[in-house]
Amino acid sequence: CALSPGSDCIADPVSSDAFLFTMAVCLTPSVSSVVISSGSSNASAMPISGFNGAGLIIEGSGFSDNSCQNVVSLGDNHHCVVTSSSTSQLTCTVDGAGETPMPSLKEQKIAVTVRNSGSA
Question: Which sign, positive or negative, has the C-alpha torsion 57, 30, 78, 34?
């Protein structure tokens, strides 16, 4: 990753403006794969409540090694609670309790947000 001079992330930036933003591809998280590590993946195998507790392993780059800074969302209103993290892998447990039932883990949009860094 090559950042413009003065944006090397080593020292706090200095600006006379109220806000200073830096954008670089290497600072933006990205997801390369998602694996269902435990639990069922579709409704034909178990009732909807069975998706609660299913495990996911998300691989990529730009994640925080501080678990609480990584937020994983599934579909429109479900979450996956991050239980461990590194800069290249997240492990999370599905919280399938939402306003509408989750019909499948395979067909869900997955969004990863790293607080103060961006979204993948």
Answer: negative
